Amino acid sequence: EPIQERFFRPHFLQAPGDLTVQEGKLCRMDCKARLLQCFVWLRPSPIILFTLKVSGLPTPDLSWQLNGRPIRPDSSHKMLVRENGVHSLIIEPVTARDAGIYTCIASNRAGENTFSLELIVAAKEVHKAPVFIEKLQNTGVTEGFPVRLECRISGEPSPQIFWKKENESLTYNTDRVSMHQDNYGYICLLIQGATKEDAGWYTVSAKNEAGIVSCTARLDVYTQWQQPPQTTKPKKVRPSASRYAALCDQGLDIKAAFQPEANPVHLTMQSGLVESDDL
């Protein structure tokens, strides 16, 4: 019996949409085409038609274009065909030159079919490890008063922030203790109404893909009758032609300054000597 074989142009079962890929990454475009192949058995009476849908048999011819120009396989552009009939265009690494309109063309003896998509190549992300612009400082506060532990951190991408008190992680905010940060890198731990239990060592850590840094400082909480210790800076003695002025700045006795040959013991025994502080 005579058999007439007919082909129809390919039809895409699977096609990707527009893509955005970061520069330096891998890009993969998958598609699958179906060929409709029709077999017609011709009999005198009656006429029987039988249609068979074949996926990938025979394998359709596929080609790729970028902005209307054919893409040739090379070290960074590969074209693969899997057993299930999926065709893939793989680009690795993606560069700015790969951005544009991609067209896939499937063809056979009956015709062709196409689909297009746009590939957008995003700029490569810059990674910078976190660094402290301003570190935590040791702080003292009177019991019952609020206190802020502050620092400033930079890094790309913006790092995650972690707080610890001694060896205990501070993972959530409360009505009295809360953690804050803004878009400029300022980090703050705010304690409302400090208590003796809040005293201790606090550590703040910043982490991103490029690294991690930490900084530690101490918080002291004093009772109402205590005074925070004050650090006194040593006095600087300015050069002076006056021996009197120079020695007074050091808290020395005035008469001793002008009578260096005198016996220090004799001077202390005399009555009526005047100390520089009294003057």
TrEMBL record:
Statement: the UniProt record of this protein carries the keyword Iron: no
UniProt-listed SMART domains: IG, IGc2
Keyword set, alphabetical order: Immunoglobulin domain
Pfam family, one: I-set
SUPFAM superfamilies assigned: Immunoglobulin
Gene Ontology CC entries for this record: axon; plasma membrane; Z disc
Ig-like domain: residues covered: 10-116, 130-220
PROSITE patterns for the chain: IG_LIKE
GO terms under biological process: axon guidance; dendrite self-avoidance; homophilic cell adhesion via plasma membrane adhesion molecules
MF annotations from Gene Ontology: cell-cell adhesion mediator activity
Highest taxon above the source species: Eukaryota
PANTHER family: BASIGIN RELATED (PTHR10075), PALLADIN (PTHR10075:SF30)
Record protein name field: PALLD protein
Lineage: Eukaryota, Metazoa, Chordata, Craniata, Vertebrata
